[in-house]
Design goal:
Helix content is about 40%, strand content about 20%. By secondary structure, the protein is α/β, with parallel strands linked by helices. The protein has two domains: about 270 residues, Aldehyde Dehydrogenase, Chain A, domain 1; about 190 residues, 3-Layer(aba) Sandwich (Aldehyde Dehydrogenase, Chain A, domain 2), CATH 3.40.309.10. It has a seven-stranded mixed β-sheet with strand order 15-16-17-14-13-18-19, with helices on both faces. It comes from Rubellimicrobium roseum.
Length: about 475
């Protein structure tokens, strides 16, 4: 078992002051994988104190000095990519080939995009002809709380823009994903990050997360995770008037019209199954125009049945387990609920795949004839489960898509350009992707409603960590 009980505070690895031991379970084997310490209040305070002490000097650095540090971190990533991927695979169950191809590289991809955006930021800009100026200044000490499902991705979307903005930070990753955060701390240390500018503690939400959220010296909390936890953080932070930015859950709708391209359904199903369904932007509801609905159901069945499942350590294009026992039980409960509420089970179903007798593995599952309001249509499942619904008109599809508490990503599949444009403007979500085209480099990631309203990535992601100061008589 790997032992990672230390925290990175003030530029060095230190022992916990008042934490408690925690064992991370390998989701492929259900055996202990990593031992960490969950930070106690004294540990959190020590990390915040280090960040506070480092803030004045770091906030006043030349922006190009901060950019140079980010460039050196990118160089360190090139040396540590394999370590990063192996850490992610072990801690949260991403198959190693997927971790190498998608999970780990998301760190460098976002870092490169931040560097491009950074070069366009005007830190001091004129406003009008009367000598008024706008200054963009770091908000201060920030608490960064990241999830387990895309650990490299979410750490990059918080740590790098905070650093570039001139903020100092305390990172608390999910207690399910400690190893990848340790690799990040090592990369920043080896890149020459000044002591206290970046600090890492391990901990759970109820303990370390709450302490960060209520700490009077923390000016901002940037959180990615469940909607339930985001609500709790917002309440906890209210007394200290922190800025709180939230990137939360989703229940994306994928609108497939009869004129969609021939790969549209397959593409949508594969997207849901990717990362074992553990992506907040997964198109988990597929709405299909009725003339092609039964054909789409059969395609979805075939794709799901062809999706293989296996341990994270094995090479290949399979999907891995869900992250832990609690998540496995949540997914299983909703699959059973779908059956009980009358949806048509097309592929998969309850239980593990037949060839696996341990590990938190889920059968790739497709439900057809789902009715709006069913549990599997409303609740974020966060597993490899697709819900399919027929529709007759564009207005009906729009109504079903928008009838959700969430508003992260929606998807449109049609060759009708005017229809795409109409729907893109009327869908209530922070992001819309059409015909399999990814959003551009540096595009902001974030949602509306219960999906939170953060905007992470590119220039928007850096500006989340900046205060706007208006100055007259310049």
């Amino acid at each position: 078992m790997i032992d990672k009980r230390s925290f990175y505070i003030g530029g060095q690895w230190v022992e916990s002051r008042d934490g408690r031991e925690h064992v991370v379970i390998d989701p492929s084997t259900e055996e202990g994988a990593v031992t960490i310490m969950l930070a106690g209040p004294q540990d959190v305070d020590a990390a915040v104190d280090a960040a506070k002490a480092a803030l004045p000097a770091w906030a006043e650095t030349d922006p190009q000095e901060r950019r140079a540090l980010a460039g050196r971190i990118l160089e360190q990533y090139g040396r540590r990519e394999r370590d990063f991927a192996e850490a992610i695979s072990r801690e949260m169950g991403a198959p190693i080939d997927f971790a190498l191809a998608e999970q780990a590289p998301s760190f460098s991809w976002h870092l490169e995009n931040f560097l491009t955006a950074f070069d366009r930021i005007e830190w001091l800009r004129p406003l009008g002809p009367r000598g008024s100026m706008i200054a963009m200044e770091p908000i201060g000490v920030v608490g960064l709380i990241t999830p387990w499902n895309w650990p490299a991705n979410q750490i990059a979307l918080k740590v790098i823009p905070a650093l570039l903005a001139g903020c100092t930070s305390v990172l608390k990753p999910s207690e399910q994903a400690p190893l990848s955060a340790v690799v990040v701390a090592e990369m920043l240390h080896d890149a020459g990050c000044p002591p206290g500018v970046f600090n890492l503690i391990q901990g759970d939400g109820a303990g370390a997360g709450t302490r960060l959220s209520t700490h009077p010296d923390v000016e901002m909390i940037s959180f990615t995770g469940s909607t339930r936890a985001g609500r709790a953080i917002t309440v906890a932070a209210a007394d200290t008037f922190k800025r709180v930015t939230l990137e939360l859950g989703g229940k994306g709708a994928n609108l497939v019209f009869a004129d969609a391209d021939e790969r549209a359904v397959e593409r949508g199903v594969r997207h849901v199954m990717e990362n074992t369904g553990q992506s907040c932007n997964a198109p988990a509801r597929m709405l299909v125009e009725r003339p092609v609905y039964e054909q789409a159901v059969e395609i979805a069945r075939g794709v799901a049945e062809a999706t293989t499942v296996g341990p994270a350590s094995e090479p290949g294009p399979h999907i891995g387990p869900v992250v832990n026992a609690r998540q496995w039980e949540h997914v299983q409960g909703l699959i059973q609920k779908g059956i009980e509420e009358g949806a048509r089970l097309v592929a998969g179903g309850p239980g593990r795949p037949e060839h696996l007798n341990r590990g938190f593995f889920v059968r790739p599952t497709v439900f057809a004839d789902v009715v709006p309001g069913m549990s599997i249509e409303k609740i974020e499942i966060f597993g490899p489960v697709l819900s399919m619904l027929p529709f007759d008109t564009e207005e009906e599809a729009l109504r079903i898509a928008n009838d959700t508490d969430y508003g992260l990503t929606n998807y449109i599949q049609t060759q009708d350009e005017a229809r795409r444009h109409r729907l893109a403007r009327r869908l209530k979500s922070g992001m819309v992707e059409m015909n399999g085209q990814s959003r551009g480099r540096g595009a902001p990631f974030g949602g509306t409603k219960a999906s939170g309203r953060a905007r992470e990535g590119g220039a928007w992601g850096i500006e989340e960590f900046l205060e706007v100061k208006s100055i007259s008589g310049w």
